[in-house]
Every structure is written in C-alpha cells, then in structure tokens.
Amino acid sequence: MGVTGEFKEEQFLTLLSYVAEQESKKIRKRQAEGIPVAKNNGLRFGRRKYELIMTSFK
Known about the structure:
1 helix
C-alpha cells in the first residue's frame, strides 16, 4: 500500500471517527431535549415496578 496509502487510510479513519462522534453528540442532545418533555407528558422511564408478594414456605 505504501506510505501514501497508509496516510490516506489514517485520514479516512479519522474522518469516520469524527463523523461518528458528532452524530453521537447530536443524539445525546436530542435525548436531553426530549426527556423533560416526555416526563411532563407523564411518561415514566425505567423498568416497571412490580409488587412482591411475600409468602413463607414451611
């Protein structure tokens, strides 16, 4: 591949890394904006809470 090919490959991987990081930041920003809106609309996050029924076995 040679030095030029390795340099181009490194630039390409750096560009892909940058694009992925920017997309991740956008996703986190949209989530941060949407979570308060969803909570105000009554949406609950997380697992459902189940009531445990305690029975004893003798």
